C-alpha cells in the first residue's frame, strides 16, 4: 500500500468538528483499510451489531484484556518483553498477541515457543505497524485492548491506573501514560498537544517529574502504550493503514475526539520506552506527516490554537533562551488574546 494514499484513508471532515459522520473515518474501499463505523453514537454507545471476538476455547474463561504487540525483527527486545510482561501484571485474565510482521531474524521461532496466554499471528508480508495492530485487534478475545510496543520496559503497577481511567466514565475513548527515556530518566511522553498548524508535540517532554495530579485530559496519546475498548477501536476502523509506522495513533485520536470521546493520560502509570527502536521507524516520516497534514491537521489546528501558546511557554520556562523568537512572539500575542493571522506555513 502506498504511503499517503487518499484511497486508503478518506479525509477527515474539518467542517464537522464534533459529528461522527462516515466522512470522518478511514476508507471506503475495504474493511481491511479503516472502514467507516456503523451508527457510532457519542460516548461509545454503538447502535450496530457488535464485532464478535475471535473464536476461543469454550471451556476457558475469556481474557479481560488483550495485549497486541506488533513485532518486526529485534528479537532481543521481544525476548525481554515476553519475559518481563507477566510479572508486571495484576491478577487479571489476559492474553498477549504478538503480530509478527514478517520478521527475518529468528523472531518467528522464538514466538512459536511461547506458551499460552501468549498467542502469535504471522503476517504474510511486512505491511507495517497499522496493519499488524488492526489484525491483532480483530483476533483479540477481550473487550479491552492494550496496544504495546516491544521496546517498553514495564514495571509492576503500570496497568491498574490505566484501567481505572478507562472505566471512569463512558465517554473515555482511550488512555495513555507517562513514558520515560531510560537513557536520560527524562519524560518523553505525557500526552500530546497540537501546534497552531495542527501538528503534534509531546507534552511535558524532557521533564524529570510527571505533571501534577493523577491524570490529565489531552488531545492525543501515543499508541506505544494505549488502552482502548476493542469494540470502539473496530468501530472507528482501527488504525489508518495508509500511514507507515508513524502518525497512525495521532490520526486515531483525532477521530476519537471528533466522535465525542475524551483522551486521558494517567500520571500514576510510569514506564520506560526505548524510543524508536523498531527497524524502519522513521523511513516514512515525511510521507506520514504530509498525509496527516491533509487529513487531521485542519481539525487539530483549532485545538492547537487554544492550547499551544500556554504549552509553548511551559515547555521552555526553564530554558527560555532556546525559544524560537518568531514562535515566542506569536505565542505571546495569542496568549494575550490579540487577534493574529497564523502564517500558512509553520514557523521553523
Stretches where pLDDT is under 50 for at least 5 consecutive residues are 13-59
Largest sheet: 10 strands, mixed
Strand content: 15-25%
- Rg for CA atoms: 20 Å
- Secondary structure: helix percent: 25-40%
Oligomer: single chain
Query: Which descriptor suits the 3D outline?
Result: globular
Q: What is the name of the CATH architecture?
A: Alpha-Beta Complex
| CATH homologous superfamily designation | Spore Coat Polysaccharide Biosynthesis Protein SpsA, Chain A
First-to-last CA distance: 31 Å
Q: Helices and strands, in N-to-C order?
A: EHEHEHEEHEEEEEEHHEHHH
* Count of runs of 4 or more consecutive helical residues: 9
- Beta strands, count: 12
Number of domains: 1
Could you say what the CATH topology is called? Spore Coat Polysaccharide Biosynthesis Protein SpsA, Chain A
Structural class: alpha/beta
Q: Average pLDDT value?
A: 84
CATH class: Alpha Beta
Amino acid at each position: 500500500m502506498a504511503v499517503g494514499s487518499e484511497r486508503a484513508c478518506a479525509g477527515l471532515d474539518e467542517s464537522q468538528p464534533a459529528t461522527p459522520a462516515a466522512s470522518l473515518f478511514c476508507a471506503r474501499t475495504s474493511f481491511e483499510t479503516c472502514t467507516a463505523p456503523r451508527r457510532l453514537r457519542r460516548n461509545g454507545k454503538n447502535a450496530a451489531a457488535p464485532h464478535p471476538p475471535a473464536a476461543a476455547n469454550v471451556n476457558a474463561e475469556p481474557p479481560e484484556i488483550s495485549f497486541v504487540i506488533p513485532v518486526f525483527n529485534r528479537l532481543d527486545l521481544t525476548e525481554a518483553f515476553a519475559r518481563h510482561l507477566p510479572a508486571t501484571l495484576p491478577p487479571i485474565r489476559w492474553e498477549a498477541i504478538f503480530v509478527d510482521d514478517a520478521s527475518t531474524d529468528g523472531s518467528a521461532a522464538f514466538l512459536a515457543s511461547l506458551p499460552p496466554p501468549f498467542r502469535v499471528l504471522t503476517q504474510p508480508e511486512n505491511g507495517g505497524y497499522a496493519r499488524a495492530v488492526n489484525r491483532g485487534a480483530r483476533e483479540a478475545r477481550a473487550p479491552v485492548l492494550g496496544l504495546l510496543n516491544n521496546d517498553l520496559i514495564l514495571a509492576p503497577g503500570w496497568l491498574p491506573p490505566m484501567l481505572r481511567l478507562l472505566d471512569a466514565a463512558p465517554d473515555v475513548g482511550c488512555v495513555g501514560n507517562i513514558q520515560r527515556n531510560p537513557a536520560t530518566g527524562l519524560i518523553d511522553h505525557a500526552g500530546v498537544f497540537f501546534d497552531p498548524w495542527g501538528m503534534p508535540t509531546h507534552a511535558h517532554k524532557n521533564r524529570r517529574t510527571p505533571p501534577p495530579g493523577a491524570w490529565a485530559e489531552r488531545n492525543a496519546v501515543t499508541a506505544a502504550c494505549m488502552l482502548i475498548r476493542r469494540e470502539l477501536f473496530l468501530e472507528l476502523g482501527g488504525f489508518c493503514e495508509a500511514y507507515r509506522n508513524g502518525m497512525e495513533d495521532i490520526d486515531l485520536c483525532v477521530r476519537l475526539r471528533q466522535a465525542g470521546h475524551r483522551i486521558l493520560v494517567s500520571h500514576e502509570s510510569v514506564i520506560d520506552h526505548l524510543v524508536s527502536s523498531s527497524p524502519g521507524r522513521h523511513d516514512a516520516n515525511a510521507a506520514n506527516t504530509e498525509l496527516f497534514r491533509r487529513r487531521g491537521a485542519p481539525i487539530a489546528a483549532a485545538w492547537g490554537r487554544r492550547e499551544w501558546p500556554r504549552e509553548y511557554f511551559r515547555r521552555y520556562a526553564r530554558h527560555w533562551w532556546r525559544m524560537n523568537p518568531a514562535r515566542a512572539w506569536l505565542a505571546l500575542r495569542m496568549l494575550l488574546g490579540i487577534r493574529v493571522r497564523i502564517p500558512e506555513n509553520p514557523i521553523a
